[in-house]
Amino acid sequence: MKPRQKRIVFVLIALVAVGIAGFLANSALQSNISYFYNPTQIVNGEAPKGQVIRIGGMVKEGSMKRLDDGLTVAFIITNHNDEAAAQYTGILPDLFKEGQGAVAKGKLNEDNVLIASEVLAKHDEDYLPPEVADAMEKARAASANATQEKAQ
User: Fold this and answer.
1) CB–CB of 36/84 below 8 Å?
2) How many CA within 13 A on the CB side of residue 39?
3) How many domains does the chain have?
4) Model confidence pTM above 0.70
5) pLDDT, mean of residues 9-35
6) What are 37-67's pLDDT values in tens digits?
7) What's the pLDDT at 94?
8) Deepest of 50, 59, 149, 151, by most Cβ within 10 A of its Cβ?
9) Is residue 151 part of a domain?
10) Same domain, 44 and 90
11) Are residues 20 and 40 in the same domain?
């Protein structure tokens, strides 16, 4: 083979290797990505079913119920406008309680209930994850706008 042909073969092999590496990296990222949705998006059907997502907001007062198996807890996440149901089987974080901020990661079932594989609770009195705080602020603004429109 001539030197020019060797270079062309080398470049083609390098391009194929880079393409395969890119494909593998993309596949790995897609399987580990979980997008954040607020309760309003869950209620409106914007969140995909059967795909790992995160939902955040406040745990509704009086909504926590321990199911018969003793390990599964059902609760409601709210953004003060809409509510989304969730279930978690396992030991909840110590800071997880009603009236506190929480983020749950899992998959929506056909009944729009998040079957959580992980639950995170806020770590102090003033902290909310940024996406939860933004979603709750938008929900409050939408609620205030709707109230003003009704008053007029």
Assistant:
1) no
2) 25
3) 2
4) no
5) 88
6) 889 899 888 888 888 899 988 899 999 999 8
7) 83
8) 59
9) no
10) yes
11) no
